[in-house]
Amino acid sequence: MSEYERLYCGHGAFPQPPNFISQQDEADRGYDVEATLANGRLLLIQLKRSFVLTQHRDAPAILIKPSYRMHLRKNRNYDQHRQLRARQHEGFEVFYVTSRARSRSAVVSAYRSGTLISDRTAAFAPLDIPQPTDAEQHWISFEEHGSYGWMFSKMPTKLEKGQIDLHKHLSFLQQESNTLEANVEALRGLLDSEIGIRRRKQIKEASPFRLFSEAAFAVMETMDARLLIVPDAGAKS
User: Fold this and answer.
1) Which superkingdom does the taxonomy of this entry point to (predicted)?
2) Residue 176: partners with Cβ closer than 8 Å, 6 or more residues away
3) Which residues pair with 38 in a beta bridge?
């Protein structure tokens, strides 16, 4: 997350829940949620741990070693995956993000060279991964330098659209910002699906600052995801 903030957020680290910024923080530290929402795109990221597979008994035979494995969360019949797919279907930018670095030294080297996201990060769109319909454990496997992924349970299924080049996609989003009104409407729609009727009435006329805070907390609580803003490239300092 720190690399995302350093490379794509021109005004520095943007606090994530539960470390919400206050109105005083906005004044003292230079944050302005409303201004960022007026020149940015909303982004949902679900961070996943990847397991490095180097032995033939562990890595799928169809993949070049080392390969990596990212498990889908099995709880409640893969409810997390279902919710992330629903948010993407509604128009949000949604990604699973995981590592394709085989060692800590590889992470450090990529960080120092500014290539952690472009070279050592794998990303997949939830709608590109089928919704599991059984109780088996499902996972996504991918190669260190490959562009595709495979969904595994009993039989492997190649993901037709493969991996997302997260660096290129974030750079693209920086050129395609939404209006404040569009982002506020998206936040309200997200909250409508995530919170109860009573809370909806309380935040119906809430400020953009509170809408973003409430939505960020809601997606973290229900999907273990992070709600971010990709600022417009022209808004960077």
Assistant:
1) Bacteria
2) 41
3) none
Task: Please indicate, yes or no, if residue 218 is contained in any of the structural domains.
Answer: yes
Residue 30 sits in which domain range? 2-226
Residue 237 in domain: no
What 8-state DSSP symbol labels residue 205? T
For the chain, what is the domain count? 1
Say if residues 173 and 167 touch (Cβ distance below 8 Å).
no
Q: Is residue 234 part of a domain?
A: no
pTM for this prediction: 0.82
Query: Per-residue pLDDT tens for 131-150?
Result: 998 778 899 999 888 888 98
The three-state secondary structure class of 237 is coil
Alpha helices, DSSP H only, in the chain? 2-8, 23-29, 33-37, 75-89, 104-113, 116-120, 166-174, 180-194, 197-202, 208-223
Contact 233, 36 (CB under 8 A): no
pLDDT over 50 (residue 16): no
Cα–Cα separations (whole angstroms), residue 170 to 8, 94, 185, 196: 8, 12, 22, 32
